[in-house]
Amino acid sequence: MAAAADGNMSVTVEEEAERDEEAKLRILKGAAFLTTVASAGMMAGFGSTLALAKKKSPAWFSKGVAATAAAPESGASVALRALGWGSLYAWCGVGLLSLTVWKVLGVHSLSEFRHKMQSLFPTVPKTPEAAGSEPVDWDSVFK
């Protein structure tokens, strides 16, 4: 009888380990997807802004691309340096904010954080019927 219980326990532990691995893989896939989408959006936005600036005034655009005696540093290098510092500040700011919230809540894992947030905030209904409201008719909103 004890051997059968040990067999069931090892199967349960194996199933739990497999579920944990699947959860980790799903999180990694989600992170990769969000990173790809965010990167593509940033590149598309930067590229379209650059194309619009070049289309509006090609003469000024070409002056800003290369360094001259009047401006020892090109506009592109100044813009790239500003983008780099801005990105660094944004990443550090979000990281510091996240760390502060994490420490204030006193959680030690993502599952604890999720449970803490679920206890602090009301649940979001899954269907519009559960919310008690009608779906928004966007045609009537913009008339």
Please provide a written account of the structure.
By secondary structure, the protein is an all-alpha fold. The protein has helices at 2-56, 58-65, 75-105, 110-120, 128-131, 138-141. Helix 1 (2-56) crosses helix 2. The longest helix has 55 residues, at 2-56. The radius of gyration is 26 Å and the shape is elongated. The model has no long low-confidence stretch (mean pLDDT 83).
Q: What share of residues is helical?
A: over 70%
Mean pLDDT: 83
Instruction: Give the topology string: H per helix, E per strand.
Output: HHHHHH
Overall 3D shape: elongated
Radius of gyration: 26 Å
Please summarize the sheet with the most strands. none
Going by helix content, strand content and strand pairing, the class is mainly alpha
Write the layout of secondary structure elements.
Layout: H1 2-56, H2 58-65, H3 75-105, H4 110-120, H5 128-131, H6 138-141
